[in-house]
Write a structure and sequence with these properties.
This protein is an alpha+beta fold. 33% of the residues lie in helices and 24% in strands.
Length: 95
């Protein structure tokens, strides 16, 4: 399932750790605090728990699932990412 992970974290160390988690799950960085990729339900739950353990009260992490049909409707305006990189056919996960 395609998921967006978007976060707002003030502490550099925590923010870097969340980014490492996302990359570790094979997610593709589309902006400084936004990742996109293909995860199964267990991976989504696990990533959520890992993030929850790290963040502080003023921080937020959003994990939005998105079906393939809706992803095809995404409009990219300005400098965008390569949508082919986040399809489940191309991503290779390194856990």
């Amino acid at each position: 399932m395609l998921v967006w992970v978007i976060y707002d974290i003030s502490d550099n160390r925590i923010r870097n750790n969340i980014a490492k988690f996302c990359k570790g799950y094979g997610l593709y960085r589309v902006q400084k605090s936004a990742f996109l990729g293909d995860l199964n339900k267990n991976e989504i739950d696990e990533l959520g728990l890992r993030c929850e353990e790290l963040i502080e009260d003023e921080d937020s992490v959003y994990i939005f699932p998105m079906c393939e049909e809706d992803f095809k409707k995404v409009k990219l305006i300005g400098k965008s990412f390569d949508k082919d990189l986040v399809s489940d056919k191309i991503i290779t996960k390194f856990l």
